[in-house]
Specification:
There is one protein chain. This protein is mainly alpha-helical. It has 8 helices and no strands. The chain is globular and about 55 Å long. The relative contact order is 0.11.
Length: 157
Amino acid sequence: MITNVQNYFGPETIYLWLNFGVLPLWISLIFFPNSKISLVFISSIFLPIIFSSIYIYIAYTLIINGENLFDIFDLYIGIRNLHELFSNDNFLLIFWVHFLGLNLFLGTWLSKDASRYSVPGILNGVFLILIYFTGLLGLVVYWFFKIFYAKKISLYD
């Protein structure tokens, strides 16, 4: 049975499920940021549990395939090591889960912060789309616009 699960949930399938799975969450954040759906599915422990389970499954797959999980630390040695590490689909997928999860967390934070400072919904949607595609660049753009709505500059919250 575990072999059947591994055959179905290969890196390509997980990648597609992740990409299609986060779209409704982002759409909910953009169009219905304060809805019950957003609060339950995005702002709760639900997503970290899902993403952590995927991490664990991919790590399990790496171990079963005889990969050394400690090879992941080689990425800090140089860019060539990072390139070599990313040539393995499972290691690349771990980083993709990381990217999607953190961007979604960042989008959730931005949505709550924008509502606290009464940033208009259309601008909030633009910032969320920027975060979806660019991550931290979207946060920096939001921060500059937030100065006008908060009427102050603060380097921390």
